[in-house]
Amino acid sequence: MSETHATQLRGIDALLAQARTGLDRLGPEQAAEAAAAGALLVDTRYAELRERDGTIPGAVIVERNELEWRLDPLGSHRLPEATSHDLTVVVVCNEGYASSLAAVSLRQLGLHRATDLDGGFQAWRAAGLPVEQSGVTRPNAPIAGH
């Protein structure tokens, strides 16, 4: 491996730290306030996690591998909500890691207000914010014995 190539290599922790330098990450309460003000919450968790833990009421489900295609305002496969590059998008993953990288990818598409939920869905749930399971919205209650 050449010295030049070796200096260009970096791990995921460095990539994640760099990605987060440009984001104003939101805590759970801030994300709830942003959604109430018109931000689009986008849950990128895979189906098994959504089925196990529930979803955030009003969040749009877009699995990570479709995110850019569904949120590009210029794209032919965009969601109806993806109307403008000025749209505030809050990406939600399980614990707030993959969502940071996804938010940066959306910013590269021109969605300059894209950010993510610090701590992900788990932080939302731990904050006691509403979670929807089986079509029923309810405040998050602690699990007995935990």
What does this protein structure show overall?
There is one protein chain. The protein is 38% helix and 12% strand. The strands form 2 sheets. A 4-stranded parallel β-sheet has the order 2-1-3-4. It is of the alpha/beta class and 146 residues long. The protein has 7 helices and 6 strands. It is globular and about 45 Å long.
Task: Name a few traits of the molecule.
7 helices, 146 residues, disordered C terminus, four-stranded parallel β-sheet, alpha/beta
Write the element-wise H/E pattern from the N-terminal end onward: HHHEHEHEHEHEE
Physical arrangement of strands within the biggest beta sheet: 2-1-3-4
Label the overall shape: globular
Alpha plus pi helix count: 7
Question: What is the total tally of β strands?
Answer: 6
Distance from first to last alpha carbon = 50 Å
Q: Largest beta sheet, briefly?
A: 4 strands, parallel
Residues in β-strands, percent:
5-15%
Q: Determine the structural class based on helices, strands and strand pairing.
A: alpha/beta
The mean pLDDT is 90
Unreliable sequence segments:
140-146
Relative helix content: 25-40%
CA-based gyration radius: 16 Å
